[in-house]
Design brief:
This protein is an alpha+beta fold. The protein has a domain at 179-352: OmpA-like domain (60s Ribosomal Protein L30, Chain: A), CATH 3.30.1330.60. It is 70% helix and 8% strand. It has a 5-stranded mixed β-sheet. The longest helix is centred in the N-terminal third of the chain and has 178 residues, at 26-203.
Amino acid sequence: MKRRYTGRTDAMVRSQEGEQGFWPSYADMMSAVALILFFLMLLSYISNMITGNNLKNTESQLSETRTQLAEKEKELLSLEDSLTLTMQQVSEAQDELDRVSADLDQVRTSLEEKEADLAEQDKLLADQKALLSSQETRLSEQESKLADQEARLTRQQSLIGEQEEYLNAATEEILELRGQMETIVGVRRSVLEQIRDSVIAVMGDSSKVRIDNGNIVLSEGVFFDVGSSAIKAEAIPMLNQLIDVFERFLSDEDNIRYVDSIVISGHADSTGNRQDNRTLSSARANAVLGYLLDNGGGRLQQYAECFCASGYGDTRPVASNDTEEGRAQNRRIEISIILKDDSIMNIVNSYLELELPEAVQAQGENAG
């Protein structure tokens, strides 16, 4: 039985414009609800069917997925093993890398040291190149100088050859001139020795006669007493011997041509007045010369121009006048043979007139 409800319906369906609505009945509403539930159940069934199918599919997929997951787990385990092995290899590789890095650092350090050494070597090489260049320049200069020296040596050798020819050509002339000089010196020496030996032979005492600087030196006591210019009697034999010696010497033309003069000089010490000493020494020298020329039969008169006498007083001492021994040596008679300057100069001129090689003359001019 349907109940009609009108209380609120009219009020509810009535609009502000005055329109009238209606409220469905309960049965209609329940029918609508049932229908809706039916559809919902139908939809649920269909959904369950679809879901069941999907679930089966899902279970099948899940099974496959589990299978695949199991395989993946196996693969994962294998990968883990591989990863573990790889990690070990990586660790070993890292250790090896560390060693290599250490070696590399060492090599780098060594390389840096080598580079520093190389830089230093480059610097040394540059210095050596500069030094070599300097030495090459110097060598070039030395070679140039050597070439000049070789050319000069060649000229010198040529000059030496000319000089040798000159020396060989002049040897005989030089020997001859030397022989002449030796003859001059020997002649004077021979006469002086004869005079000395004659004095010693007569006096029997060699202490009062000597050859000094090419002169015969006779002590004052041989001829004179102290302060006197008179010849002592015991000196006469000795003077006669001197006459014989001078005659033999001057009579030889080879001797007399070299003699300029035979000088008899008197000397005194510094005792007493100087003028008196000079006068006394001159008187004694003239006394000896007078005896030689005036005695022995006048044999030396023809050679009188070769003799001269002079007195020097105390102006030419040969020893100190501070001692008696020195003063005794200063009181003396000297016999000197003076050679002619012309004779010596002739020998020298003969030498100078020798024809010299042109190279030797040029060398002498350059030296001058």
